[in-house]
């Protein structure tokens, strides 16, 4: 081929290259514009949603009608001591704080909790739970105090029994004094013929038979003492509240509750992530209110833990809480039956199959891994889960429509979630074992 | 401009009051047999809070309907799910009823469906809510 023959081809090739280059450049500019352009101003409707998430809108902790000492500082001090007391376990090594570690926002960083044995589920945070009508991933308890009782007797957790714990708090000098001041008369468990060393229903066979051998009145007395232990722990836990985060500063600025310039408080990505959160990503359908949770139960098609059957979730939790003797309607509850609206009006139905409680999104920085069995290790994976919206293994995935977020949008959403991190709003001494 | 303003104001009102219809509005049942209005214990209605309503039920002539059986269903049609709770309704006076155990767990459009049976007629009334 001669040079003259080649020239037209070269010209065509050059032209194609130039056009192709221009198209690529235009695409790049469009992409950069999409990713880098500053967010447009908030609409009034968006501002209303942002206000609804702002921590400034969180009312004071409501008194728990089932727990007469829920806001008593003496109870909180006793509960604080009990929370860190390893004597509440079978091997004297496991306190509540063993899994609910204050330095990890009261979680343990593990997929499933490990104490005396391995639990079925991930350790949830306690921060802000005083507002939740239901406790546990499946809501199988309906008060902080009745929840606090169950790890004490769980063989995988603290593995003790109510008789041993009732005796501990009434024989320890400090606990006994506070107990008497809070609850009146101090029960006397010194008669070992009536009150064996170890007893509790449904526990080890020897503990169970010791329990069955006690009179009903004596069992009631032990149950009451045991319930009161939980009530003091609950009074402590109610002091553990979420702190104000960078998001809250930003929200206050956006809604005019502070004079700050919002643009100085959030990066473009964080602001765009917030826009996705209140809009296209549909997070607020469940993660709503100042704690970023509706404390309700939803099946979102989270895969089961490797080797585990799918978690039945709330469908089992509702049955268990209804028959739990320490529930709102039980003899040791301080509530009038008419105050137990959550329990008496709890729903049934197939929507509860595989449904688990919405967790708060505040403090995600130190509460990984995520989900009820720690199946999801990172926030990016979590966002991808909702982007993919897989079929649920049991029940029905409520979040069944894929979000179709683009990769840069997923990054923006994750950037926004990072702005929710904040220290716990509790006095420092409450996060340490009492002296 | 004015139209834009009124639209915005209306939308704001929707969100701020939390109700598509201001409380006190009267809802007529499908076959026209009953008229229902309500007063919420929480005003404006907020999400994630357990609360009660008082229902006022009258017949088509405006006479109070006392002691009827009222069944309730509800949910978010756009999300294909029901209520977070199982509310109950009991007669509480002349033409009034106590609706207990309501808690809305999402913002958005909700519908409550009341089926009223006073012995002589059975009819359903739908109450829409925008939270």
Descriptive report:
The complex is a heterodimer of chains A (435) and B (131). Chain A has 15 helices and two strands. With 435 residues, chain A is mainly α. Chain A has a two-stranded antiparallel ribbon. In chain A, helix 2 packs antiparallel against helix 10 and helix 14 crosses helix 15. The longest helix of chain A has 34 residues, at 3-36. The relative contact order of chain A is 0.15. The model of chain A has no long low-confidence stretch (mean pLDDT 95). With 131 residues, chain B is mainly β. Chain B has one domain: Immunoglobulins (Immunoglobulin-like, Sandwich), CATH 2.60.40.10. Chain B contains one helix and nine strands, in the order αβββββββββ. Chain B has one helix spanning 2-17; strands at 27-28, 34-40, 51-59, 69-76, 81-82, 88-93, 96-102, 109-117, 122-130. Chain B is globular, with a radius of gyration of 15 Å. Residues 1-22 of chain B have low confidence and may be disordered. The chains are: A mainly alpha (435), B mainly beta (131). At the A-B interface, helix 2 and helix 13 of A face helix 1 and strand 5 of B.
């Amino acid at each position: 081929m001669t040079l003259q023959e080649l020239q037209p081809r070269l010209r065509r090739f050059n032209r194609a290259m130039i056009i192709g280059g221009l198209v690529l450049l235009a695409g790049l500019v469009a992409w950069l514009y999409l990713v880098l352009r500053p967010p447009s101003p908030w609409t009034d409707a968006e501002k209303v949603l942002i206000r609804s998430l702002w921590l400034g809108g969180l009312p004071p902790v409501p008194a728990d009608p089932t727990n007469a000492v829920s806001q008593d500082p003496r109870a909180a001090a006793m509960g604080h001591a009990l929370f860190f007391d390893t004597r509440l376990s079978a091997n004297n090594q496991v306190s509540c704080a063993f899994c609910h570690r204050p330095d990890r926002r009261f979680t343990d960083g593990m997929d499933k909790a490990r104490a005396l044995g391995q639990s079925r589920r991930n350790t949830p945070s306690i921060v802000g739970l005083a507002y939740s009508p239901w406790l546990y991933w499946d809501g199988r308890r309906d008060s902080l105090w009745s929840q606090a009782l169950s790890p004490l007797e769980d063989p995988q957790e603290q593995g003790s029994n109510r008789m041993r714990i009732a005796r501990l708090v009434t024989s320890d000098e400090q606990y006994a004094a506070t107990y008497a001041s809070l609850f009146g008369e101090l029960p006397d468990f010194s008669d070992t013929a009536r009150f064996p060393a170890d007893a509790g229903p449904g526990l080890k066979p020897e503990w169970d038979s010791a329990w069955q051998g006690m009179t009903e009145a004596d069992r009631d007395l032990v149950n009451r003492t045991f319930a009161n232990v939980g009530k003091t722990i609950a009074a402590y836990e109610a002091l553990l509240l979420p702190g104000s985060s960078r998001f809250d500063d930003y929200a206050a600025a956006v809604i005019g509750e502070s004079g700050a310039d919002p643009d100085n408080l959030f990066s473009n990505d964080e602001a765009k992530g917030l826009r996705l959160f209140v809009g296209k990503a549909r997070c607020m359908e469940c993660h709503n209110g100042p704690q970023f949770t509706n404390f309700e139960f939803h099946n979102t098609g989270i895969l089961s833990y490797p080797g585990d059957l799918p978690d039945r979730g709330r469908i089992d939790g509702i049955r268990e809480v209804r028959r739990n003797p320490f529930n709102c309607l039980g003899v040791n509850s301080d509530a009038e039956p008419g105050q137990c609206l959550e329990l008496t009006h709890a729903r049934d139905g197939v929507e509860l199959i595989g449904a688990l409680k919405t967790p708060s999104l505040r403090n995600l920085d130190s509460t990984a891994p995520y989900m009820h069995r720690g199946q999801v290790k990172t926030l990016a994976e979590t966002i991808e889960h909702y982007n993919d919206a897989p079929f649920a293994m049991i029940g029905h995935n409520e979040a069944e429509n894929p979000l179709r977020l683009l990769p840069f949008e997923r990054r923006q959403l994750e950037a926004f979630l990072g702005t929710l991190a904040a220290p716990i709003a509790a006095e420092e001494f409450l996060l340490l074992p009492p002296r | 401009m004015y139209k834009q303003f009124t639209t915005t104001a209306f939308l704001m009102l929707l969100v701020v009051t939390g109700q598509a219809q201001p409380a006190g509005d009267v809802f007529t049942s499908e076959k026209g047999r009953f008229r229902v209005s309500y007063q919420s214990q929480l005003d404006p209605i907020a999400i994630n809070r357990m609360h009660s309503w008082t229902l006022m039920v009258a017949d088509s002539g405006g006479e109070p309907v006392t002691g009827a059986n009222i069944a309730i269903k509800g949910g978010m049609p756009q999300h294909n799910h029901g209520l977070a709770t199982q509310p109950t309704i009991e007669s509480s006076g002349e033409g009034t009823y106590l609706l207990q155990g309501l808690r809305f767990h999402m913002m958005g459009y909700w519908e409550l469906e009341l089926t009223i049976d006073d012995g002589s007629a059975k009819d359903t009334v739908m109450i829409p809510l925008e939270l």
